[in-house]
Automatic annotation (TrEMBL):
<feature type="transmembrane region" description="Helical">
    <location>
        <begin position="76"/>
        <end position="95"/>
    </location>
</feature>
<keyword id="KW-0812">Transmembrane</keyword>
<feature type="transmembrane region" description="Helical">
    <location>
        <begin position="255"/>
        <end position="276"/>
    </location>
</feature>
<feature type="transmembrane region" description="Helical">
    <location>
        <begin position="167"/>
        <end position="187"/>
    </location>
</feature>
<protein>
    <submittedName>
        <fullName>MFS transporter</fullName>
    </submittedName>
</protein>
<keyword id="KW-1133">Transmembrane helix</keyword>
<dbReference type="InterPro" id="IPR020846">
    <property type="entry name" value="MFS_dom"/>
</dbReference>
<feature type="transmembrane region" description="Helical">
    <location>
        <begin position="101"/>
        <end position="119"/>
    </location>
</feature>
<feature type="domain" description="Major facilitator superfamily (MFS) profile">
    <location>
        <begin position="242"/>
        <end position="441"/>
    </location>
</feature>
<feature type="transmembrane region" description="Helical">
    <location>
        <begin position="324"/>
        <end position="344"/>
    </location>
</feature>
<dbReference type="InterPro" id="IPR011701">
    <property type="entry name" value="MFS"/>
</dbReference>
<feature type="transmembrane region" description="Helical">
    <location>
        <begin position="350"/>
        <end position="371"/>
    </location>
</feature>
<feature type="transmembrane region" description="Helical">
    <location>
        <begin position="139"/>
        <end position="161"/>
    </location>
</feature>
<dbReference type="Pfam" id="PF07690">
    <property type="entry name" value="MFS_1"/>
</dbReference>
<feature type="transmembrane region" description="Helical">
    <location>
        <begin position="409"/>
        <end position="429"/>
    </location>
</feature>
<dbReference type="InterPro" id="IPR036259">
    <property type="entry name" value="MFS_trans_sf"/>
</dbReference>
<feature type="transmembrane region" description="Helical">
    <location>
        <begin position="43"/>
        <end position="64"/>
    </location>
</feature>
Amino acid sequence: MDFGLYRQLWRRRPVRNLLLVAMVARLPHSAAGVMLTLHVVQTLGLGYGAAGTVAALLTIGIAVGAPWRGRRVDTAGLRVALIPSIIAEAVVWSVAPHLGYPGLLAAALVGGVFSLPIFSVVRQSLGAMTTPAERRTAFALDSICTEVTFMVGPALAALVAVQLSTVIGVTGVGVSAALAGLALVWFNPPTRSDQAGGALAPEGIAGAGANDDVASCLESAESAAPAEVAAGQADGASGLRRLLSRAPGGLRRGFGWLTVSVVVVLVVAAGSGIVLSGTDVGIVAVLRGHGEGEELGIVFLAWCLASLVGGLVYGAMTQRVQPLLLLLAMAALTIPMGFASDVWSLSLLSIPAGLLCAPTLSAASEAIAALVDEGKRGEAMGWYGSALTAGTALGSPFTGLMIDAAGPWAGFVGIGALGVLLCVAGLVAQSVRRRRRASLS
């Protein structure tokens, strides 16, 4: 491990400014879920089911809009791509709290589609501003900053909702998000290494070895070049390549970056979303079941701090770890949380799984940056965000069904087992693919 890597990155002013702007930009989004829930329950006087529907539509909107926003960054540049999001964030969330419930549902969907693509923009920019050898540390540092933001955002949302009003709070989320977008437009971080402020070492020279390391970790011998997709009929070509080679020309060119290894990373993102959102619901259910719902913050603090520490350690590592293995460990360590008997035991049991949260997401982001060409990386990061969001949307209701069927403990067991099965299936598929390649060589 080399913790000096953090010091080296933080000393670079463009990287430091991007991370600080990202922390501020993520605050509105980290507060939005709690604020909308409190608005529906507290101001509109509806139930948590109705609030969950608003959150679900917001999530669907984000999942649909993220790849499109990412593609616009690739094709039109960051400043042009962010303009619709800046306008929509300010307008939609200023109008939304004055609407009835049906109008709020529509606003949540539209707001999600045009949501500021802060996650994909920051990760894409970090990928462009750092060499492949530095990306593990850069993405881990971003994950640490994100954990800090999500410690502050929900608490700030609850404070505003109680002390002022949810109408002011929802409007504030939109205005803050728009201002964050303007800050990104002003800062205009590079999204490609050949732009001003891009990586000091071109990917094809000094950084090539690090990219090869990540790619080999995912067992990828494929390139994302569309020309190679056209040659997908060759012996040993993957089923995905053959499928893309038969697709219409526009679809083939548009998804030429999609390889089996990239699909594995997207599965990791979806699985991470499932486990993390399920853990959220499980924590609430277990504490309420033991009559300790007011102690929720203690468990979330322990969980988030563990993730922060895990991200710090992972970013200092020089040894690569496959994202699928990290997710497997995180899912397996989530299962024991179901056996907690009070707030303190749940806090302690949340630490092992929490230690792997930030490393899993950092490793997956690093893999996307290594496997996808810069010209398509914004779109790929958008799909990565969509996969993570889709997993988040699936994890909560699945966990809720398990809790309703068997009790609070079953939420953690069910979500952990589902994550383990997903990872085992991915590892088996990789093993079969490796043996098939060996037999053809």
